[in-house]
């Protein structure tokens, strides 16, 4: 394939807006298996039984927006400024309040404010804060990024990388228990993730910034070129997303 094809694909992936947490642009260009526990269904079920709920790191609110019936009080937090307005528009129909927060440990809510706290793919789980804002008997539900997720893609660009201890499910469970929560469910899954062209890779790395934290197209153009040539010669690039589900309650 000619250099112009590579340049066009990279430029295409670099031009797509990355606000929010909607990956529909990747349809037909990349795919990821769904987790077997069905987080959206679990979220909807827990929300129907909640009185006051908090969604931490809501992104653009896309997942939370799928619940069929919101609780009396619904609050979401988001730390990345471009996502805050996206989330406010997305969640307006649910009557949710979206709170812009700084990337710091403390949550801006009083003690025991919520009987349900949820979070899908939190950046840095704040276990003591989750325990603090939960009411006695309250519940925390979260799907999180597991250690080594899509490491195959990261290593294609930067070489071998150490695994993060704070992304291990065992670490999460131990830290939750240390914060005063009781873990009632812990499940793991490895999900096949397929990239069909380098435009999808560029878009993904711009959006999921923790995969290669210093990623820019200019900085990694030679590595992207090698990856493009590999896809052309061998077919789609396959990586594996690691996920875990954790659910915990605050003893009451």
TrEMBL record:
Is GTP-binding among the key words of this record?
A: no
**Signal peptide start and end residues:** none
Gene Ontology MF term list: S-adenosylmethionine-dependent methyltransferase activity
Keyword annotations from UniProtKB, A to Z:
Methyltransferase, Transferase
Its transmembrane ranges are none
Q: Where is the Methyltransferase type domain?
A: 54-141
> Which InterPro entries has this protein been placed in?
23S_rRNA_MeTrnsfrase_RlmA (IPR052939), Methyltransf_11 (IPR013216), SAM-dependent_MTases_sf (IPR029063)
Q: Fetch the PANTHER family from UniProt.
A: METHYLTRANSFERASE, METHYLTRANSFERASE TYPE 11 DOMAIN-CONTAINING PROTEIN
Q: What is this protein called?
A: Methyltransferase domain-containing protein
Tell me one GO biological process term. methylation
